[in-house]
Amino acid sequence: MAGVENRIDEADTRFDIRARDTLASRASRLVDSLQAAAVDIVGLLRFEVEDTAWDNYLKGDRSIFARRIAQQLTDGGSRAIERHYQHDAEFRTEAVHYIEAFEALVAHVLPDREGRTLAGTLLSSDIGRLYVALGQSMGRFEA
Fold first, then answer.
1. Which helix (H) or strand (E) segment is 128 a member of?
2. Which of 4, 36, 123, 141 qualifies as a cystine partner to 128, CB 3.0-4.6 A?
3. Cα gap 10→7, rounded to integer Å
4. Of 136, 116, 129, which is closest to residue 34 (Cα–Cα)?
5. What residues of the chain score a pLDDT lower than 50?
6. Which of 118, 119, 103 is nearest to 33 (CA)?
7. 133, 78 in Cβ contact below 8 A?
8. What separation in angstroms does the CA of 142 have from each of 36, 88, 91, 108?
9. Which ranges constitute the DSSP H helices of 46-125?
10. Could you give the dihedral angle defined by the CA atoms of residues 111, 114, 118 and 121, in that order, rounded to the nearest 10 degrees?
């Protein structure tokens, strides 16, 4: 009987590892997609980004543009996002794409055991702050 239980435990563990690897892989691709979208959003907003940001991006710092937007939000950039959302169709399209991708990421991680914690971490990250700013500009969080 103990041998059967050991095999069941082993199979469960392999399943958990496979599920975790699949979750990590999919989440990683979605985060990469959000970070790439942040590059487009920075360009559409015409936020000032120094040349070193591009250098860092090309060296592998994919989150630098999301960080720059989050920085601008702290400095009052949320009004620019609202203005662009209202008057710039290309920006609106990018914003909707970003919102959908972020929500897909959260929906993907929530069923996991640690999903709520991870979703909270994502929401408080720079890509999450951009999600909230875009959602607010769209009126998405109004009651």
1. helix 126-137
2. 123
3. 5
4. 129
5. none
6. 103
7. yes
8. 28, 21, 21, 24
9. 51-58, 64-74, 78-87, 89-109, 115-124
10. 140
The predicted pLDDT at position 143 comes to 59
Burial of 25 (0-12, 13-18, 19+ CB in 10 A): exposed
pLDDT at residue 4, as a whole number: 57
Identify the pLDDT of residue 25.
Answer: 75
Q: The whole model's pTM is what? A: 0.76
If one counts every other C-beta atom within 10 angstroms of the C-beta of residue 55, the result is 11
Provide the sign of the torsion angle of the four alpha carbons 103, 105, 110, 116, taken in this order.
negative
- Give the span between the Cα atoms of 62 and 43, in whole angstroms: 15
> In the prediction, which pLDDT does 21 show?
57
Token pair 């690897």 is at which residue?
21
